[in-house]
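User: structure tokens for this one?
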Amino acid sequence: MSSDRRTATVAGVLFLVTEVAAIGGLALYQPVLDGAAGTLAPGADTSAFLGALCELVLVAAVIGTGVALFPVIKRRHEGMALGYVCFRFLEAVVITVGTLGVLTLVTLRQDPAGAAGAAGADQALVALHDWTFLLGPNFALGLNTALLAYLMYRSRLVPRFIAVLGLVGGPLICASAVAVTFGLYEQISAVGSAAAVPVFAWEVALAVRLIAKGFDPARADG
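Assistant:
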């Protein structure tokens, strides 16, 4: 197996890991984020800790995709390749901050006396998670998606229809994040979920292509 083929396989697997970990983390956090201020439903702390574990896996996979793809995409445009890696690191940092916010929220609610007198802090930590969820898996994800999709479209390392998914999905999820910021609809809503579908389709399609066939061998050495 050539070096580029291994790179493609590793990157494809990591993209799939990001999808599974992101969905798992979001689902596992809900018992805490949806709970009443100052209270912790039975099992919510365990669910939150498992969600945090998923988020840490997500962070590692997000960074991993950037690092894995950099040697290949820098042959086309080193500056844009570096920008992609930086945006992936930014996304990972924002996700980590949100994870720390949720864990701090759990700690606060585990102390009934402290939670009773810290409703403001409780609400602030929920808001912190909500904002990091908006800025990381939406703004930063949209930017790095558009950048990588553009590089893939120009280089034709993968079929162009896959790159088009990213070129549509990246700006769309950024626009959706702006709409959520201005209160047009909730992030976790039918509209918000629909806006995320093209990015999800892009990452899954790219992952499947990279695992199954790798980069186009006629262009990988470009």
